[in-house]
Amino acid sequence: MKIQFIKSILNSAFFLKALFVVSIFMLLYISSVSYKHTKALNESSDLLVHSYKIQYQLEHVLSMLKDAETGQRGFIITRNPVFLKPYKSVEDQIYASFIKIKALTIVDQQQQANLDSLLKLIYARLDLMELSLESIRKNTVTESQLNENLLAGKTVMDKIRNQINKMEDLEISYFNEHQKKYEREVIFSPVSTFIFAIFSLLVFILAFIKINKDLSVLRKSNTELMITNESIQHAEVIGEFYISQWNLVTGELTYSDNLYRLLGCEPQSFKPSIENFLKFVHPEDEAIGRDAADNILIHGKTYPHYYRIIRTDGELRYFMSTGKFISDDKSKMHIGIGKDITDYHLSNVALEERNHELEQSIKELESFNRVASHDLQEPLRKIQTFISRITDNDKVNLSEQGKEYISRIDSSAHKMRILIDDLLLFSRTNKAEKIFEKTDLNIVLENANQELAHDIEEKNAVIQSVQLPILNVIAFQIQQLFVNLIGNALKYSKPDVAPIIKIECEKLAARDYPDFITDTRKKYFKISISDNGMGFDQQYAEKIFILFHRLHHTTEYVGTGIGLSICKKIAENHNGFIVAEGKPGIGASFFVYLPV
Amino acid sequence: MPKNPIHILLADDDEDDRLFFKEAFQEIKINTSVKMVNDGVELMNHLAQDNIQLPHILFLDLNMPRKNGIDCLLEIKQLAHLKDIAIAIYSTSSSEKDIEATFIQGANVYIKKPSDFNTLKKILEQVITVNWQYQTSGLNRDNYLLSL
Amino acid sequence: MKLYLKFDSNIAFKKIIQEQLDKLRLNYDYLGFAEIEIDDAVSGSEMKELDTCLNLYGIQIVETQKSVLVQKIKDAIIEMVYSEDKLPISNSAYLTDKLKQRYGYLSSVFTEITYTSIENFILLQKAERAKQLISTNEFTFTEIAYTLNYSSVAHFSNQFKGITGITPSAFQRIIKKRRENSINLKE
């Protein structure tokens, strides 16, 4: 998730860089195109000005000549020298124009050549004019001569005009040629420039969108980071833990604010360092902290360690620290988490003490049980044996009362014996090793029947049993359970009616679970043992499982009321249940629920 | 029954039990010779002597000071010249587990000390006769298990 | 490896007697049922030697007429219990028929000599047979009960428990563990 995010950022950075380079190139291209374009435009206008200047000078030359011609004609007609006035300055002016044109066309060989021939023509014309004027002034001129002169003048003048036209045409053709070239370029560049401009605009828009998007992602992750940071800080305070970050390459160590609070100081009130931290550690536990730090730094091992802290207010607190290494190519970090476990530790200590006490009292109870049952047996047995000695050997010597007393002592001792035997059995059920193994209950039932073979035969009882499952049980306890329940059915059978004891078994569906089974995830077998004996009133169904509780009068039936308590204990040892159902005069049923 | 007495050895630390045991054999009409020792250590010392009459059957109380019955049983079963002596455990305990454990360790008879003298007599008589059958009638000693 | 052996004690017995008497160069006739007639006069020392030799095999020389009779009764009972056939319905009829003596007489002689009754001895032998069958692990209790003439498994279990004090299945369990135990010890 995080890596993905970093990747996308990296990708967008690369993308933005690419966009930037592309737009730089486009801008450079566009500006170079514009520069070239403007330059070409300038060239064109220069060229236009240039050719207009040349035309102007040529026109000027032509008009000077015309002025001179006009003046000459006026003089010729009127012989008034006033008309010669313009003529006199013409040569200078023409020359000045000529110099200008010369300068303007300095690079143009053809125009220079044209200019040279124009100049020759002009000089030829001026010479002709001078000649005419001279002849007039001297009055040496004839009409025909003059005509000839004028005709010659006209011819030269036409040539001049042609030459000028030719030069002008050449200039115009230069300009046109340039103009054509320029137009070609200018037609192409606005379109491409426009396309590029649009494209750059798009690129910029794209970059803007991208940057905007990245920015919002960044803002979002910033917010998230802020929230996370905030949560961690709160969590640290609530959970009473701190975080340390130790850069193992640079040695830089940072502690979260809560560490300072847990030590009872102001946040960041001392420089984070192992040494500074160890100042708060209980002197006896300093080695633990030092070892842990050494292991992290030198051996690259981190493990949970427990130590005590003495806070600035002098209170002793129990801490637990653990950590994890985080490394990439460049750095190796150790992220440590420390926790104030004082409450947990104290309650654990209290619990341990309680456990110890409980174990102690269980042990006492067990030894009491042993004393009460086992050790009491010895003297009781001797008492009984001695009584039997007396009744056998010395009965004749006893008074009637003595005999009566002896028989009562004997009967009491007998009751006590049964009680002790049953108690012993009950305590054995409690503390015996609970070895669960896969057991075929059919064999267990068979063994139970063998144990009861004498009673079964004596009472002519019929035992009907279905196929029982193989379950993970404490075999001898289940056998005891069967012996007790079947024995019970035999004991409380109706006089003169042969007992029929049915043993049935079914796997319970969850919907058939009785109310007392709360854990519906477990699967149960329901084993029922029902008889056709005397039964009992349903109101006693729960009481009969209570230790020493008996429904029948002592003399009527032998028993101590422990048998069913043992059954209950056995069912509980197997995480199962036992319930009873009885109908007086019809029979009793016992249901044992054993988990699969 | 043989003209020579059946040799019986009892190891029991309880004085009363030794008394009952002795008196019971006095009343049983079988020719027996009863020898008694007070605990496991005494028993093993007795059996270690040369030239003694080894018992036909040894009655062993489980709960004895210094060395208990089970330790004696294990020790006897390790000794070549003693391991064929029939051993009857003679104890107050009657837990199935104790009974099975001693049988597995090699005991032949398990007697729960009864609380009635006549029963004691009957039991001891039964043990002696059954034991005698195992010694004389070619019964398989491996299957010699008797719990009373 | 475990071997279960089946043997005819009569043949083994005959063979041992033959070997021992031949060793002492005594002529004899085998009369059957552990009874032999020695033709020659036997000296006291020879008698003692024979007694010692036979004792090695668990065989004793019984002298009195009553002891001989008891031995015959025992043999008859063992033969009866261990025969492949089903047991006879009436023990007394069987013994009377076998030994050609009045049952009352047999019974009183037996009790006088062994301090136990013929019925007890039969029960003991039957239990012994049952133990043998159980320890082979080859038969179910139902099969054993049938073979030994019991009306039901319950009856069989009850009687077995009455004689040995333990249930058949406990017996089976103990014998199995005992064997494992002795194998472990040997190893």
Describe what this molecule looks like in 3D:
The complex is a heterotrimer of chains A (596), B (148) and C (187). Chain A is rod-shaped. Chain A has 13 helices and 12 strands. Chain A has a 5-stranded antiparallel sheet with strand order 2-1-5-4-3, with helices on both faces. In chain A, α2 runs antiparallel to α3 (109-138), α10 (441-451) crosses α12 and α12 packs antiparallel against α13 (563-573). Chain A has helices spanning 2-78, 85-104, 109-138, 143-239, 257-263, 274-278, 286-299, 342-393, 400-431, 441-451, 453-458, 475-491, 563-573; strands spanning 241-247, 253-255, 305-310, 316-327, 332-340, 437-440, 462-465, 470-473, 500-507, 524-530, 577-583, 587-595. By secondary structure, chain B is an alpha/beta fold. Chain B has a single domain (6-147), classed as Response regulator (Rossmann fold, 3-Layer(aba) Sandwich), CATH 3.40.50.2300. Chain B has 5 helices and 6 strands; from the N terminus they run βαβαβαβαβαβ. Chain B is globular, with a radius of gyration of 14 Å. With 187 residues, chain C is mainly α. Among the domains of chain C are: 11-61, no CATH class; 122-186, Arc Repressor Mutant, subunit A. Chain C has 9 helices and 2 strands, in the order αββαααααααα. A two-stranded antiparallel ribbon of chain C has the order 1-2. In chain C, α3 packs across α5, α6 packs across α8 (153-164) and α7 crosses α8 (153-164).
